[in-house]
Fold this protein.
Amino acid sequence: MMMNHLTLFALVSVLFLAGCAAFPTSGPSKKAIETYNDNKAIDSKIIIVDVNQKIVSQLQKKDLKISFSESLGTLNGRAQTVGKGDIIEISIWEAPPATLFSSSNMGSASISSSSGRTVLPEQMVNSAGTISVPFAGQIPADGQSLREIESEVIKRLKGKANQAQVIARVIRNASSNVTVIGDVASTVRMPLTANGEKLLDAIAAAGGPKQPPSKISIQVTRGENAYSLPLETILRDSAQNINLLPGDLVTVLFQPKSFTALGATNKNEEVGFETQGISLAQALARTGGLNDNRADAQGVFIFRFEDKAAVDWPVAPKEMTADGKVAVVYRIDLKDPSSFFNAQNFKIENKDILYVSNAPITETQKFLNVLFSVTYPILNATTVLGR
């Protein structure tokens, strides 16, 4: 009878061992991932890269953003300039006895006072970029400061007007504007003044972002160039709150980012994170860490489509997407104490998949649990029948 029990046990064991590949699992094992290229064609397009200090440093250089202060400058103290479409007012004073800009010479087109002041009719800077001043001709205005316009009028009136003094001012601003669009309370076209409005002034004029600052990026487009930074960076570093120039386009972007946690973590879900970014260590913490009963600490992987020039690849990569992205699996061994330093500096990117494989013993435990749950009732039944 004992022999029959052993024979039955062995038979059931063989059957289960033959079908153990069909046991439920949360994903590929560490070995399956590491030997993927060995089992496929030589030109496999998936690259496995160990996360070490060298790789982390290379990725940090790739993620380094150019600051606004470096790319767009601070422009402190910059004079306001006049542009096409602006409405300008010119006032002229002459020392007595004033004759050139007297009422008799100017007719009804001027406003004169006993102080010797003559205010010319308001006029728009024309498409040629000039304004007209009697006895001085066409004065260049587009791109000029008010002081430059005043100096040019005085220069041209020399020898015609008696010790002329000139004041120019902008009545209506049509050229010095900044446009704010995107995820703000209201899109605005904000006029710039001599105060030198800054980036956060423009965002405030638009009513501020509709989403939390941690989810917002700010893009400034100047000419053909565009630069972006997380809003939190601008709030934290005043040097990034740059002065704006006419024609700048400020775009407030709502950019929710997330990664997906799968495998032997305590939470399998999509996890959102801030625009500023998080590290691998923070990502693991937000998933509740590794599951002590299942996880293989040597089998922590990050699946990502990476830029082709991101790192020095162990083998020459083959492009997987139309925009030249490479399918890469970053591997980190959390049983190595030094790996925790790398995990603090390894940045998680949007749409990453964080996968933790099951420990090999987990599959053995599954097999034994299923095996004993089936064989014990059979052995008990044969024992009863054999009595």
Notes: The two ends are 10 Å apart (CA to CA). Residues 39-43, 364-372 have pLDDT under 50 and may be disordered.
